[in-house]
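Check this:
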Amino acid sequence: MLLKKKENLSLRANNMIEDIKKVGVIGAGTMGIGIAEVAASHNQQVYLYDLDFEFANDAKSTLAKRLQSRVNRNKISPERRQSIVDNVFVIADLNKISDCQLVIEAIIENLEVKQKLFKKLQGICHPDVLFASNTSSISVTAIAAALDKPENMIGLHFFNPAPVMKLVEVIAGLKSSKTNLDKGLQLCKHWDKTAVLAQSSPGFIVNRVARPFYGEALKMLQERLFTPETMDALITSAGFRMGPFTLMDLIGIDINYSVSQTVFASMYHDPRYRPSLIQAEMVAANLLGKKTGEGFYKYDGTDKAKVVFESEQEPAKHISVCKDSTQLDLLTTQLKNNNYFVIDEHKGGVSIIIDDCAILLSNGQTCLERSTNVVQKHMAQIDLTLNFSDCEIIHIAFDRKCPAYLRNKVVGTFQKIGKNVLICDDVPALIVMRTVCMLINEAADAVENCVCSAIDVDMAMRKGVNYPIGLIDWADRIGYHHVIETLENLHHWFGDDRYRVSPWLRKRC
C-alpha cells in the first residue's frame, strides 16, 4: 500500500513537470540568460523578455557563442547546441508569455519594481500560472503581496553561473501553496539541480549563513590581525576553495556590501549582520574589486604580495603527545610517523607538549588566559583546519612570555613535517576557528528559526558556495562544546552581541 502511495506521488510530480512546456524569463542579464539556458536545455520553450529588446538579443547571441565553444571542446554535439538555441525565443511584447506555465523574474533587486512587474503579469497570464522570483534577498512573501493569488508565487534562487551551479533555493512565501512548492522542487530535479527548501527570510539560506565569512574577515582586518593575502591563505589552507577577500573582489565589493546592508536592515539591525565600514569606504572610493581593477587586491598585472612565513628553525627532538584522543590527533599522527622525533605519551588534555610549552587547539581565549589551566610554564594555540594532514599552513599563537628559543623550537617541529608556519599575536580565537565558529552559529540559528533543516543548510553551503563540508557536519567534528566555548569566549572578550550562541547549539550539548 505504501509503495502504491509513493508511485502515485511520483506520477503526480511527473505530471506537474510535463505540464510546464513553456517558460517565461523576465530579465536578460547574467542570471536571466543563465536560467533560460537551464530550461531550454531540458526541452522547454523559453520566452525571454527584457525592457531592452536588443540587450536580450545580444544575450541570446552570447549564449549561442558560449555553447559553440562547448561544441569546439567536444562537450556537447552541434545538434544539442542548436536545440538549446532554438528553444530560446526573444520577445519584445510581454503579452507573448500569456500561455507560459511558469514565469521567472530575474530583474533588479527592488521590491516595488518586482511587485509592479507581477501585478502586470497576473493580468496577462493564466490564473494558475506558477510565478517565481530569482531574488537573492527580498522577501518572497512581500513580492507575492502584489498578487491576487499569492499562493502562486515561490522563490527559485539560482546561483551564478546558473547553468553550472547545482544549487537552487526553493523559497516558501507565507502564502505559497504546498502544491507550487512541490512543483518547484520537482522542477529543480528535472533540471538536474539540487534543491533545498527555505522559508522566506532575509538572505534565505546561503546569503544569510555566509555573512560571517565576509563580515568576520572584515572585522579581523579592521583589528589589523593580518593582511588580506595572509587571511585568504589561511582560509584556503583550511579547506575553503577561495578566501573571503578574493571572493569579495570577484563578487564586487559594492554588491557584497549591498547584500550586507539589505540583510542587516531586514534583520532589524541585529549586530550579527552589521556591515563593515571598510566596505563602505571602498565603495565610496570605487574600489569595487576585479571589475574596477582594484579592491582588496590590484588587478593591473602585478603580483599579489606574498605571504611571509617563519624562517626555517631547528625542530625539537623529544615530543610528548596525549595518550587520549584530542582535536589535534591528525597532527600528532604526523609527528609520530616522522622518524626524526622521539615520542613519549602523557595523560591529560594537552594535545602536544614541546619542552615546557603546552599546545592546544584555539578556543577563543588568549594563551595568557588559558595558561592557568595547564601545568606547563608556556602555552601555544593552533588554528583550526579541516584536515591537518592536508593543510599547508600551521597558524599558531604563543603566550607573550614564551621565550624566542622555545617558539623557534615549536616552529621548527611543524616545519619538519612539511608545514609552513605563521605566528600571530596572542589574540582570542585564531582566524579560521573564529570564522568557522561564526558560520556554524549562523547555520545553527537558521535551523533554530525554522528557515531550513539541518540537512538542507549543509547541502546549501556545499553546493551553493562550495564550502568543503557542511557547517553542522563541521560542528560535529570540532565538537559542539568547543564551538560554544569559543563563541562564549569571544563574546566575553569583545562584549559584542554578534557572538551570542544559538540556542540550537546549546541543545546539542
Summary: The two ends are 40 Å apart (CA to CA). The longest strand covers residues 153-158. The chain has three domains: 2-200, 207-292, 318-424.
